[in-house]
Specification:
The protein has about 350 residues and is of the alpha/beta class. The protein has one domain: Alpha-Beta Complex (Spore Coat Polysaccharide Biosynthesis Protein SpsA, Chain A), CATH 3.90.550.10. About 35% of the residues lie in helices and about 10% in strands. It contains 15 helices and twelve strands. The chain has a seven-stranded mixed sheet with strand order 3-2-1-4-9-6-10. Strands 5-11-12 form a three-stranded antiparallel sheet. It has a two-stranded antiparallel sheet with strand order 7-8. Strand 1, helix 1 and strand 2 form a beta-alpha-beta unit. Helix 1 packs parallel to helix 2 and helix 5 packs parallel to helix 13. The radius of gyration is 20 Å and the shape is globular. The structure holds guanosine-5'-diphosphate and manganese (II) ion. Guanosine-5'-diphosphate binds next to strand 1 and helix 5. One of its GO terms (cellular component) is Golgi apparatus. It holds the Pfam family Glyco_transf_15. It is found in: Membrane.
Length: about 350
């Protein structure tokens, strides 16, 4: 992390256009799920995205909400955006928990997690949100018109200038998933995620990629108690509050069939599966690892973790500082680096 870096070392970076009006963008959009009361925090982050990236490229934004966006939200947000903004309401059938969830079992599961101080354990809307980010958003009628998305969250920070088109970087270098931070998960929240996944894979071995990132999913050296509790899954995952990814991956047979299988088990409600381990396990199993990209150059913070490159494109963060000292053991990036990145990936910057 101390190494000075700049942009990805590929020969096909697309630099900001001189004439934005005639620029042919990739098929891509920003995307966020938000509530009306999030408007200040959403604006906080959009200002940074616009300053560092989008004032140069003008990609559109899609705002998704389970309730209707207020006039106030739309007006506040639109003011900050240099491109098109779409404000969409989610179909309740896609958002709410399915009818066949056993309420008694759900209540018991939520209470158990609450007793162990798992955040949002008893908050049904949070479970719905995680499920929607896992199996809903990429099939929303508005999202269906796009291939790539950049997910952002309210109150996150972006520290570095990005002077190339990241969506074209994804497209032209065959990347399907890009991340900035990799963490261990709250093991109580995903107790059955791995065993259920292994059941699916026994039925569908053909979906596992020959160059899958299997090692970091099962590594138990750095944090053995996590892997034990999660029944064989290291709990390492890409932190999904930042993602730049290709939705055709989620729309594939492998992901679609796996996520329906997982959803049927009720794990989004009987436990509290996050969309981060869901996306990460899928992309690590069903994609070629060379198609997964660490955006080392995108300085990013979602409390309490940071990706801060040592680059003169960045300000307001401390290079290499991931978190306060007491949280350093939550970092799983070294496993990704050691176990899954080859020399070409390590020398990308
Ligand atoms: P955390 O990062 O895990 O603490 O969760 P957040 O509270 O940041 O929620 C994750 C994302 O989902 C954010 O973009 C929120 O605005 C959004 N979100 C969470 N719950 C809801 C909800 O009930 N409705 C809507 N529309 N968005 C939600
Ligand atoms: Mn958040």
């Amino acid at each position: 992390m101390g190494q000075t870096i700049d942009e990805p070392k590929v020969d096909n970076l697309v630099k900001p256009p001189e004439d934005p009006a005639s620029y042919e963008r990739a098929n891509a959009t920003f995307m966020i799920l938000a509530r009306n009361q999030d408007s200040s925090d959403v604006v906080h982050t959009i200002k940074q995205i616009e300053k560092h990236f989008n004032s140069k490229f003008h990609y559109p934004y899609v705002f998704l909400n389970d309730a209707e966006f207020s006039k106030h939200f739309k007006e506040r947000v639109q003011k900050e955006i240099s491109s098109d903004a779409y404000f969409e309401t989610i179909d309740p059938k896609e958002w709410n928990q399915p009818d066949d969830i056993d309420k008694e079992r759900q209540n018991k599961g939520m209470q158990e997690l609450a007793n162990e101080n798992v955040a949002y354990a008893r908050q049904l809307s949070y479970h719905n949100m995680c499920r929607y980010y896992s199996r809903g958003f990429y099939n929303h009628p508005r999202m269906k018109q796009f291939k790539y998305y950049w997910r952002f969250e309210p109150k996150t920070e972006y520290y570095c200038d990005i002077d190339y088109d990241v969506f074209k970087f994804m497209r032209d270098n065959h990347k399907i998933y890009g991340f900035t931070l990799a963490l261990y998960d709250i093991h109580q929240s995903i107790k059955s995620l791995w065993p259920r996944t292994m059941e699916f894979i026994e039925q569908h071995p053909e979906y596992v990629n020959r160059n899958a990132s299997f090692s970091w999913l099962v590594n138990d050296l750095q944090n053995p108690q996590k892997a034990q509790y999660a029944n064989g899954y290291s709990t390492c995952h890409f932190w999904s509050n930042f993602e730049i990814a290709d939705m055709d991956f989620y729309r594939s047979n492998a992901y679609s069939e796996w996520i329906e299988y997982m959803d049927q088990t009720g794990g989004f409600y009987y436990e509290r599966w996050g969309d981060a381990p869901i996306h990460s396990v899928a992309v690590s199993l069903f994609a070629d690892k060379s198609n997964i990209h660490w955006f080392r150059d995108i300085g990013y913070n979602h409390i309490p973790y940071t990706n801060c490159p040592n680059s003169n494109k960045c300000t307001k963060c401390s290079p290499g500082k991931f978190s306060d000292a007491n949280l350093r053991s939550e970092n799983c990036l070294t496993n990704w680096w050691n176990l899954e990145m080859d020399e070409a990936a390590r020398n990308m910057y």
